[in-house]
Amino acid sequence: MVEGSSSIPNDLNAFWMPFTANRQFKKNPRMFVGAKDMHYTTSDGRQVLDGTAGLWCVNAGHCRPLITEAIAKQAGELDYAPAFQMGHPKVFELANRLVDLAPEGLDHVMFTNSGSESVETALKVALAYQKAIGQGSRTRLIGRERGYHGVNFGGISVGGIVANRKMFGTLLTGVDHMPHTHNLAKNAFSRGEPQHGVELADELERIVTLHDASTIAAVIVEPVAGSTGVLIPPPGYLKRLREICDKHGILLIFDEVITGFGRLGTPFGADYFGVTPDIMITAKGLTNGVIPMGAVFTSGKIHDAFMSGPEHLIEFFHGYTYSGNPIAAAAGLATLETYKEEGLLTRGAEMGRYWEDALHSLKGTRHVIDVRNIGLVGAIELEPIAGAPTKRAFAAFVKAYEMGVLIRTTGDIIALSPPLIVEKEHIDTIVETLADILKSLE
Ligand SMILES: Cc1ncc(COP(=O)(O)O)c(C=O)c1O
């Protein structure tokens, strides 16, 4: 080893951590060194209950044997195959399994390595499709305030999180945003879909009137906005977006990076809400978060629009070195097998009822201004400390970690999304720990 700080174990300086308060972390690090099923093990030997499925991704729980064995086997058999102009059987098998699982009509899949790459892929497919069918003037993309679509330039352009956008210049041009659907004044403490706000979908009509439909390629939304604090749409909202898109020849893209793979108690959010998009973006739960992989589903109509011209030519100029990597494909197949064997893609529907009651028992607890839930997702919104937004929720996060529960916070919202193998006693532990913390917090 080279002499110097880099050879010192646990020197925390070199790694510039993502979406992390680096200086705070490095003063008082929180390190995981192991994981099994519902729990992490910390470097000081404590068990921490995973209330967030890692980052909304470890849907089947940690270190599941089918998945870890499939990865090890694949790594020893075929480690890598070129993604362009070459294939390997597992990636085709995974694509077939995925389209079988997806809502009817989404029958083609492209692979990526993350949610952010899936978003960029979907936006590019949408623009290129419009051009391919002779609608090249449709170049605008419509997102939504408080939407999160990863961190790349397309994603932050259609996304609506100010902190993720404001440092990075003018972003993509020709983007507009619908309003978000979060309305505490009318919908606080809703169970499942909140009652008010379906008319917010009509804002899309207003945007179409402003720009003209002939300039708009696609609308992108998360069925349930996750990263900005679990914003659940009112009944009929997504259906109305679908109708408006159909009326105007606009593609509808669902970003299901969080809602995909069982989070809402159905395989996809599209199933939960009974609305099928033209393009569906996934990642995270696709491989149980174990190996980076994303998948973008498209309708046959979109795929077929590109399948013309001389057969020796590439139809769509896009792809990644690691698209459909053999080890990721093996992990994906084993993950789908685990979900199937254990009924995890619908488990959130039954467990969701216990989850809902448990979370809503926090109504009336100090600082709590809203509790909301859907499937196995929940959010507890806290009154911010005057002049110090996010501080109270962050203090809750640190305290929960110390008390053995991993939660996630975004702004002053605690977002919860346990692995889909969660049992009632785990839910009780999460809720009781939070109740204790909230009572003691400033
Ligand atoms: C809806 C949504 N889209 C995209 C992303 C980005 O995924 P990744 O972090 O894998 O790039 C996320 C991540 O949380 C997400 O929630």
TrEMBL record:
<dbReference type="InterPro" id="IPR015421">
    <property type="entry name" value="PyrdxlP-dep_Trfase_major"/>
</dbReference>
<dbReference type="InterPro" id="IPR005814">
    <property type="entry name" value="Aminotrans_3"/>
</dbReference>
<keyword id="KW-0663">Pyridoxal phosphate</keyword>
<dbReference type="InterPro" id="IPR015422">
    <property type="entry name" value="PyrdxlP-dep_Trfase_small"/>
</dbReference>
<dbReference type="InterPro" id="IPR015424">
    <property type="entry name" value="PyrdxlP-dep_Trfase"/>
</dbReference>
<dbReference type="GO" id="GO:0004015">
    <property type="term" value="F:adenosylmethionine-8-amino-7-oxononanoate transaminase activity"/>
</dbReference>
<keyword id="KW-0808">Transferase</keyword>
<dbReference type="InterPro" id="IPR049704">
    <property type="entry name" value="Aminotrans_3_PPA_site"/>
</dbReference>
<dbReference type="Pfam" id="PF00202">
    <property type="entry name" value="Aminotran_3"/>
</dbReference>
<comment type="similarity">
    <text>Belongs to the class-III pyridoxal-phosphate-dependent aminotransferase family.</text>
</comment>
<dbReference type="GO" id="GO:0030170">
    <property type="term" value="F:pyridoxal phosphate binding"/>
</dbReference>
<protein>
    <submittedName>
        <fullName>Beta-alanine--pyruvate transaminase</fullName>
    </submittedName>
</protein>
<keyword id="KW-0670">Pyruvate</keyword>
<dbReference type="GO" id="GO:0009102">
    <property type="term" value="P:biotin biosynthetic process"/>
</dbReference>
<keyword id="KW-0032">Aminotransferase</keyword>
